[in-house]
Amino acid sequence: MARPELVANSDAVWITMEESTNLMTVSGLLLFDDIIDHERLKQTIENRLLTYKRFKQRIVEPSIPLAPLFWETDSNFNLDAHILRVGLPSPNDEATLQEMVSRLVSTPLDQTKPLWQVHIIENVGSGSAVLARMHHALADGLALVMVLLSLADFAPDAPPRPPKEEKEKKSSSLLGNLRKQANSTIAAVSKTATSLVNEGMETVKNPSKAMEFAQKGAENARTVGQLLTESADPKTRFKGKLGVGKKVAWSRAIPLSDIKTIKNTLGGGVNEVLVTAVAGALRTHMVSKGDQMQGITIRAAMPMNIRGKSEMGKLGNSYGVAFVPLPLYLESSIDRLEEISETMARMKNSDETIVTFGIQKGIEFTHHDVQSELLKLFSARATAVMSNIPGPPMPLYIAGSQIKQLMFWMPQVGKVGISISMLSYAGQVFFGIAADDGLIPNPNELLDAVYREIDSLLALATDAKK
Description:
Blueprint: E1 5-6, H1 9-16, E2 25-32, H2 38-48, E3 57-60, E4 70-73, E5 83-87, H3 94-105, E6 116-124, E7 127-135, H4 141-149, H5 164-167, H6 172-182, H7 184-195, H8 208-216, H9 221-229, E8 246-250, E9 254-255, H10 256-266, H11 270-288, E10 298-305, E11 319-326, H12 333-347, H13 351-362, H14 368-379, E12 384-390, E13 397-398, E14 401-409, E15 418-425, E16 428-436, H15 444-465
Parallel strand pairs: 5-6, 10-12, 12-15
Antiparallel strand pairs: 1-4, 2-7, 2-14, 3-4, 6-7, 8-16, 9-16, 10-11, 13-14, 15-16
Helix pairs in contact: 1-14, 8-13, 10-11, 10-15, 11-12, 11-15
């Protein structure tokens, strides 16, 4: 009898972290101007997504206490149980869609089945939407966004890609061509992500230093102690008791050229400008509620990719976390941009950032129950989870339909109640917010504040160029 395939500790931790008030699910939303072909999309998912064995496996918890989790192929796997077709009720507008998506992302995945689900949402105005939900145990957010984009093509009339089993029957030369075609989209996305590394915090300058930490152990015990005993973030309206319900919202398209104009004129990088806009929006929201801002700095836990080029597009969890201070006490957007740019530049090579990476890597060798407690301790140091993923610069098509808007949401670890995502696609930037219903009942208010922050920074950049 074959030995069961164990779930890596770095993946199993997301199962033990799951709570009804904070689901460990990564969600991606794609919007289309037309009605996507249901059967063609189903065939695309079968040919491409199911080539990853994880999407036909479920996680099993042994009856023996403290025994490790393992992967098991679902003998009753049914693709139709994972691809669901629903209609958006009247009035078929964006507000109604946000309500439906909010309800779906608040619903746990069935852990007796493979941990993913796709909803095809019809009657979205004259178009449609696709909501994909995948458990963090399958992979981290960057990997899952890559997997989702592997469903896409560069043209609406791209020929269907044959499934993996069929490709293996072809001649070696044809096999090479098919594999090249099948990997073209994800390779382009990976190339884009790599080219933008130096503009943000997606990757540390030398991730091997983090790996070294896992081997050195006690040599850095003092720094680890400082990290784990630092004070928690201050109590603000963004922290509090969490409920089951979450609210999500996504922004309109913001020209990436505007963001680059700001960073080229006022300083910083694309990521720093986006983080500054979020910080300003959080401050504006608090001020509008009458909160006192003196001395208020909160932290955003920002996942950082530590994958090499050869690992892009693979499943599993491979990332670290940087805790980025957001100086909400600063009134001036220019001052916030300068402070955030200086802080993030300093963090890229700081001991704290490298040690944080080392802890992330090192705790892979501990039991997942211990991991979850450590990660909850980490989460106390942050008020929000903030993710930035550079997406493809060109329009993409799925099942013949062009993706008009693209957004994703990361889970909020531990007691964190707000997740903010930023993604660039086809020359545009999109913001997504997922928040606890009791803390932020209307995340669109935050998005409106983001727009105002970017408009303000752009006006300052335009004036400075005159």
